[in-house]
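Step 1: inspect the first sequence and its tokens.
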Amino acid sequence: MAGKPMRGAPFGRERRGTCRMDRDDIADEGPGLTRRDFVAAGGAAVAWSLLGKAGGAAAASMPAPGASAGPAPNPVSFGDIPVTLREGTNVSIALSPDGKTIAMDLQGILWLMPAEGGEARQLTGYLDDIARPDWSPDGGMIAFQSYRDGNFHIWTINSDGSGLLQRTSGLFDCREPRYAPDGRRILFASDCGGNYGIYVLDLRSGDVTVVVDTPHEDSEPVFSPDGRRVAFVSGGQLIVLDEQGAQTVVAQGAVNAPAWTPDGRGLVYRVASGTPRDMRSSRLYRSGVPITGEDEDVFPFPVSWLSADEIFYTADGRIKRRHLAGGDAAPVPFTARVTVAHAGDYPRRRRDFDSEAPRPVKGISFPVLSPDGGKIAFTALGQLWCLDVGTARPRQLTDDSYAKTYPAWSPDGKWLAYSCDRGGKLDIWLRDLASGEERQLSRSPSAMKQSSWSPDSTRIACASQDGYLYVLDVASGAMTRLLHQTVWSGRASWSKAGDVIALAAVQPYSSRYREGVNAILTCELSNGETAYHLPGPGLSLDVRNVNGPIWSPDGTAMAFTMKGTLWSMPVDPRGRPTGAPRPLNDETTDSISWSGDGGKILYLSNGSLRLLTMADGSIETLPLSFTWALAKPSGLQVVHAGRMWDGRAEEMRSDVDILIEGNRIAAVEPHRPDRGDAAWIDAGRRTVMPGLIDMHTHREMGNQFGDREPRIFLAFGVTATRGLSDNPYLAIENRESVDAGRRVGPRHFATGDALDGSRVFWDGMRPISDDGQLERELSKAEALEYDLLKCYVRLPLRLQRRVVAFGHSIGIPVTSHYLFPAVAFGADGHEHMGGTSRFGFSRTGSSLGRIYQDVLAIASGCKGFRTPTLFGLEGMLGDWPGLLDDPRLSVLFPAWEQAPLRKAAAAGPSKPVPMVAHQVEGVMSLMREGVKIVTGTDYPIVAPALSMHLNLRAMVRYGMRPVDALRSATSVSGDVLGQGIGAIEAGKLADIIVVDGDPLRVIDDAARVEQVMVNGFLHDVEGLIAPFRGKDAGAATETPQHATAGPAAQGPLRLASKSRHWWHDERWVEEVRRSCCLPT
């Protein structure tokens, strides 16, 4: 139907400059020095420009001489193990105008092959990271999008492989190029306007013009054959725009990949059905009529036309040729050859689980400088500590098993506020520093953390676990909700007058892709008005935790970390920048705090406490003599097992003794009652097996569970976890606390912030802006002795290759969401069954959850590992009738986590989920090819520990043998870690569980845990639960959805700016939190 013109000029009457080349802001703001102001004021060079404006060519196959030449030599390859690919997972193609040649994107490389099939010839290299090829009308050139420089941009290459040229550049993403019929222009989608709009690039002049920019996210444009109309996708609709600006809605729903019919009278497009976690079909349609069947796995890319009734498209891992008149599609065979490297081909560093010699404490979490500059409060080894500056030995302030985090000094120096779950869940507690007396201040139904005192010491700003900002009255405990929901924002900081609060928050570039920059968010207490500010064009703050912004005590500046180092920026009383930021050091910087007079800043650098004097810029390392030692039992323990599974064998052994000397298994022998002075553990009527290993967690991102979380893991039999991105110091603190016997919990294999590109989403992702910053982050990894490194979604391949090389040089593995070309660099494995990708689609899993021969061949060729992290399993709780009454859930799980689990269980017995079934089929195919499958959950996106058992149950439900599922969670994971766990064998660490039943026959029995041993220390389930019996974790099932909680009267909810900052919408926040790691 016809409709009103789109916002912006109709494409037939374009205005040059509509897409501003000097624009580098990503959202309109109020008064103040925004990114746009920096450019207008001459504070930075043009940040988004089109290359090639100096000259042009008469045809698309003649590149503009001003365009940027590509890298040489090209193509570049890595690895020495040959792999032949005959299928492609989410492979895309474009047919040349003469119908003779196919351009193919297979695993991020551009290939050419004969249209009838055959050997593919490589045109681009492993670092070019290309997608969505499109031919020029004369067949002389191919356009594509490339992520080579750390943003998506339009590139072209001649069809003979010469003349690689970058056509766009800058801070914004430019995607999905399609040639105009005249060959002189390229349509593309870009987020340069604050959301995705459609633009056209003139190849002769280099000018860019806006074609359409609706309030929605506009993408995948394509000219009609006569060049007089444009079809594109916008807001769940396929729309055709004509020269007069009128629009026609062609299709609605999950529609994408439009392609015009040769006569221009219709469109072919792809439609997906189902939910993100349960996609049911992916089909091609022509003007509302399906072309392909429900059983085909059609990939999300435009078709190519060979004739008026014959198309080429990709589905089921293949290139297909189909006559629209009817009949089956014919596959077009191809072979493409790549190379990979052997995973694990380097000396591995092993953690020392034997020596009891003292070791320096490196897990110094959230240190804060006292107002007088003379003391430092921090958490370490599970307790709260205070260090007098100038002395080396800290004083222990607390001594109990509960969680403690985020200490904060009152400005008058009389109190320490911190988060603790002594009362049942994380609340704000106050400690009187003179008397040592403590009291619980907040009593919210949600976990509360990140305390920050007002300048007059009468109020405390803090955040709830679900993303709201609150203000507590210190005298009464009254709590008022101040700020709308955000995604894991940072600790608040107060203005000098106490009327504005600033914190770090994510500011997305668009709603189509969730990533953005970490910006300074200010909120005025009087009216709730919010505004975002950036330190400069294209600049992002580092992680959003305790790295700033923090207001100087005199209110004239903010300090924060950026590019991994410490910076200061002048601001006005409302927090608006008044000048450019300046660097204060050139070393890794975390956890910053000012002294009360503003003269000093404390921070952590590679594990050392550093103190900066603002007056002269001098920096000193503060002395700290603080050690811990490995805790392990002494003497001989014997576990008598009625049945024992060692983590590897096909069957159980019966009536055996497991002999444990200290923290290691000494032997496994037939049962003998005469073992002398051994301490006996009787499991004669039970099954003993290795403890489970969760290989994909973000435990420090889920620290709102407090001390409940490690107990939940143990109570469900998880004795080890691997972290995939977390606050590094908190992760190391957790690791040291458990190893030292100061915290009851699973042993932890830790990393720091995942290494990401210039755009980020999660708090635990570190935006890397240049090579120097990356080197600093890698030095931190070595200094803090990370157990692994993780590269995240937008880290460019060139930098990922450097991370792999460095990680292996210090003996630790490297993983990411990407399989190829990461494994050509030597990466050890990859995460998820088609996880979050910068492309909007995965090359390791289709939207229906299927994988194909390319993934199998590459993964088996490198001999790496894969962590499936199956999602959408909560419905299976309906098959677990006793769970809701199990005290491991009813006592240990906080109310906000119980509520969705109870809702899922109430739905009754679960129905099959085809997408999960396809994923499990893919997992089993990988196993058959020799790929090491390890089980992980992605906690805290899903429930802790419980999700491990749902993963195991799902694998068995959809075809895997229980023994293979359990191996993935025990011995295979242990072998991948290489740290002596995961099996009951002589020499292994004593991490074992005692369960009621036979898990090799009934996988559900793996959850019937009665006792658990970690490092030789035995715990029973009741002992794990006991500290929280009678403490209901704020058992009100509501989370704070209103303005106040606790004893204060209800007040108004202030969301005056919400319509402008759409990413504060609770529905969007919840959706993106739950949407991690879904294929497209």
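Step 2: inspect the second sequence and its tokens, then contrast the two.
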Amino acid sequence: MVDNAKPKDLIGQIIDNKYELISPLGEGGMAVVYNARRLRINDEVAVKILHPETTLDAVSQIRFEREAQAAARIKHPNIVTIHDFGTSNGLTYLVMELLQGPTLGEELARHNGLTVERTLNILLPVCQAIGVAHQEGIIHRDLKPSNILLHKLKDGTELVKVVDFGIVKVRSSEALTQVNNILGTPHYMSPEQCYSRELDARSDIYSLAIIGYEMLAGRLPFDEASIIEILQAQVEKAPPSLRQYRPDIAVNLEVAILRALSKKAEQRPSSAYQFAQELLSGAGIQSTSSSTGQLKAKLTSTEILSSIAASANRNTSNNPIKSDTISRRLPKPLPDFNNFVGRKRELERLMAEYQLLTSGKARPVIVLGEKGFGISRLGEEFNQWLKTQNIPVLLTKFYESTSRVQLPFQPWLDLLRRSLGIRRQALAQESDLINITSERLGLTLPQCMFENRSLDEAEKWSVFEAIEAIITRTLSEHHDHLGILIFDNLEYANLSLELLSYLTRNLRTRTLFVLLANAEKVTQKGHPCQEWLAALSRSGGYETIRLQPLSHNELRIMLDGIFGRLEIVERDIERIWAVSLGNPYYIVEIIRYLLNEGKITLQTGWVCENIDEFALPESLQHLAEIKLAQIDESIIELLRQAALIGHEFSFDILEKVSGLNEDELVDSLEKAVKTRILQESDKREEVYHFPDPAIQFVLYEAIPRRRKRKLHLQVAQVIETIVKNNQQKLSRYSAALLHHFYEAGEIEKTFYYGRAAAEAAFSRLDIPEAEKYYLWALSAAKEMQEEGRSPNTTEQAELYLGSARIALHLGQIEKAQEALAKSQNLAETEQNEAIICRTQLIKSQIEYSYSNFTLALTAAEAGLTAAQSIGDNKTESCLLLILSQIFTALGQTQETLDSLNSNLVIARQNKDYLTESQILSLLGSTFGLVGNFKQGFSLIEEGLKIARNNKDRLGELKALERLGKLYTQTMQLELALEAYDCGLGLARSLETKLEEGMFENGRGDIYRHLNEIELARECYQELLSIAHLVNSLSGKALASHNLALVTLELGVYSDAVSKLKSALDQHTKLGQLRLVAEAYYALGSAYEQLGQVEPAQAAYQSAIDYCQRIIHPTYEWQAHYGLANILWMFGQSDEALTELVTAQEIINHLCEALPDNANKEEFMRDKLKVSSLMEDIKQSLET
């Protein structure tokens, strides 16, 4: 046994019949490294062995192995080579190449700071090694000098090696590298590591910058007295100036290191390669980057010293600028605002990603930036470069959902047109593409692509396959069958996210997907792209390029790009940067303003007059006001009308509102386009939009209030004529109609269109908008009543019912009850059975949320009778679903199955995919509870697929919770945790508090299985807090039950008995028989530990009775085992064997029902005690 072996005790031992341990090389908090001999090859290697006392739980063991495998994938001369990994005789080991030489930490201990030459010769290879690791999706997480080895080769030369990839994930709680579950070494940890947040490559870059700082300064930037103070400094304090310790280094080199030490990850270099290039540039060295963005592994001393000397000559003062003017190239006769500048690094990164595609390693690239940062321009420039390389590229953009009709697949039709080289104007109608595609490509486009309606499953997949075929055909023109797809405005891709998922799955090995997005919008809470990106991350990952504000130096380059040569003093550049904060769009607008004001003029060259005393625009809104002041007043009035219509507007609506004839309107719009106030959308020839929201805002706010109301009414009436007698158009335009009538003060119309707008918003789960629209409409109804007008009673009932549904979704139960009562009263006054049955549905859901299952059952049955009597199949299906949930809570298994099977038939007949998804996942969960695991997994996964295919996030939420439970039952704990984590994020984005609590509860169950008791307690406590917040009795009871189990695990048995009795009482009152059975089993365990055998026997027997009554095999076998233990204590061996035989039969049945991919060994781990006790009893009987 090696349980408590010291390092010297293992010397001479042979590990796994392959490695003989010769001598210890070093020891850390978690492992010992030995010099070892490989027996088969007879060479020397290093073997790292985890301390035997280090306790590895199941998940940590899995992750450790996965990380070791990941590190082994990285093949690079500056990364230690991993040879082998395994376990032997209770030891976990890792085999790597044997390195000779000191660590960087030892090197630094001998010197008070290193020369710039020495620093770069070490740090640049480390950057390249880390960059390669990042490309493999591996984050080091624990970069520090002791993990950088200076390996001495036989010829005496030095080779830098990075070690310990991924091993930091399994640090023990005593090790320096873990403080309250924070992985890393505090002196070198990024701020996001200190907060235990999700890490990406930029965390490693921060650590590299700390190392670089220490190498040059001879000290750490943050070296406080305690670990807590160090962590606080990493998060809050700015690092001291590097040049106060090393005044001899270049200013730009200090800037490069301090930028990489930014507290915000997005302000650091985006890659290790970029950081290395900035170090080189800061030291005055020309970059030696290759086409893939990688750097030469090592610069010679001569190269570095000569470049540093040249840099020193150029920087005799602290200012890197030699004179007070910038004059680099010949002046241009006209400013070139289309010159692409300031994004060279990002463009090179995209080029490098294409190079990775040729080796099959490319992943989708998400380019993020704020408005005005040049996201679209970067995509266009990349597109142009690809064309020069004869690389097939298809480019399209997604469109903001507006008030006008838009084909769901419009972006993809645009992509097809561009691939065929057809302008929109050349088509009489979009569907002409069917014949053209057939003739040119031999492919058939489904007619449904050109119809503005929801598609059924078969139609949807036919469209997906057609688009995939088009892209594949286009790419086939390239000899490698490789190509690029560029998508702009990802933030508006709601209708296309499922199709994007389909294409990234099927085409990713031969296609680079580049998706450009507004960072502010896609990172908003609840945005559909967040969920989509999370799914993309789980299915292979993606790369992120985040556009940063332009730096001072990039601003100078931008000015050179615009003018060729511009004489401008440095302080004026500083002022322009300070006002614009590096926003490229803002910079261009300021430059245009200075040109218009005569502050920049063409003399012998372009010259900027001193602008010290000149008032620059203080904001984009101020700029918009200045720009509009230069526009003809006749056009301004038209633009105000356009701004009132909305961000985007059609020619037809503006023509009717303005009263201008067609020629006058065309002329005015052309002038607005030339002055860049408007842009013509390429989506449709007669649609325009405001590229600058500030301009639209200024125009709208300039309209007098009375005039606004009149114009809003005029716009609403124009749109109303468009949607007349067209229900499909009404659904799409309803929000615009409601908005304009509301702003016009037309309360009757606000009341009339409120429900349509609210229901459209709710259908896309835009809950805040739906809530607002219901409020507007109900406020209008109240105002009508105050004026003596009678709003339609049925419509009022519908509005209150919708408000109740929204409040219920948000967990505002009292508000839901209040709105429901009003709806019910109005519906009964009108004797409207259709609304009455739906009020019963909401009432049942409210009572269910309160855990009043009897009242919930009564309401659901009443509603079901009403729905069936009037033939309302959709409501009937919803009522059957809530009935099934009630039966499940009450442990009435057969009733649950009967209700679900009946409901499934109705849902499929009605093609009600949202209800079908929830039925299937609940049906699967029920099968899982009774021990039919294979069927359970199959049904839940089918329900999850339908939910995701139909963008039904509520259905997906339910399916993930049920999938997590089933994974837990079958002891697939890592998969269960993934399902719960995914569901928790989704619940938070949807703001469904009780569901959030249930996912926390599931995570608690996982941690309890893994003996992570404190983590389990935290999760259960979170459920309890949420249950109190939303007043869920069943949530409170479940949390109390599970917190009692934590007490039991901690060995506080008397306290556990008291808490379990309280939980049992709550479950009994609520009628939750499944939890009653589980509580009795836990009580039996607690009594048994206390030695109170008679109460234990009674509790186990009660658990068995309830388990058999509701079919709960997962707990029944445990109760039989517990009872057998008690009977054996009483000397009743035969009776004990009978209980054990029953338990074993149940276990065998459960094992047979496992899906093929389940780990049967893990599943059986806690069940082996049954056969073991059976053997003990049999042996005792024999003796």
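Step 3: confirm your contrast with the notes below.
Residues 166-182, 287-332 have pLDDT under 50 and may be disordered. Residues 10 and 471 are 60 Å apart (CA to CA).
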